[in-house]
Amino acid sequence: MIILFGVFLIAHGLVFAMYAAHAMGLFEVKPGLTWPDASWALSGLIGDPAVRWVVVGVFALVAVGFAVAGVALMSHQAWWEALAAAMAAVSTLMIVLAWNGRMYELSEQGLVAVIINVAVVVSALVLHWPNIQR
């Protein structure tokens, strides 16, 4: 189970890398998806181009963090829990801040990632699962 969950954390990080690439304009996750433009919290303060670069930076960090947490878990390092939980919290905050404030296309704006992030936090910090003790 340790290897499976470690690979899952790495894959979760790769999804954040994909959304960072989308925010950079390298490709579209879904045709016509303008996310993270029109962020309810940030666009009025710093403008959409700056929001995109903030998302790119944060999601790139999160992608690396989840990958490192996955490798740490598979290497039986106890600190994987704190890193995975921190990346889940940071990415959830960024998803909420980048949300456009509308209740449609939520899955394209990160709702599934938020649900996974909650599961990662509960798994790591509440259940301490998977247990790395042999």
Describe the structure in your own words.
The protein has about 130 residues and is mostly helical. The protein has five helices and no strands. Helix 3 packs antiparallel against helix 4 (about 80-100) and helix 4 (about 80-100) runs antiparallel to helix 5 (about 110-125). The two termini are about 10 Å apart. The mean pLDDT is about 95.
Approximately how much helix is present in the residues?
A: 55-70%
Rg estimate, integer Å: 15 Å
Shape call: elongated
Low-confidence stretches: none
- Nearest-integer average pLDDT: 94
The helix/strand series, from N terminus to C terminus, equals HHHHH
Helical segment tally? Answer: 5
Strand-pairing-aware structural class = mainly alpha
Beta-strand residue percentage: under 5%
**Extended strand count:** 0
Q: Span between N and C termini?
A: 12 Å
* Main β sheet profile: none
Briefly say what this structure is:
With 134 residues, this protein is mostly helical. It has helices at residues 2-24, 43-46, 48-74, 80-98, 111-126.
In terms of topology, how is this protein built?
Elements: H1 2-24, H2 43-46, H3 48-74, H4 80-98, H5 111-126
Short descriptors:
5 helices; elongated; 0% strand; 66% helix; 134 residues; mainly alpha
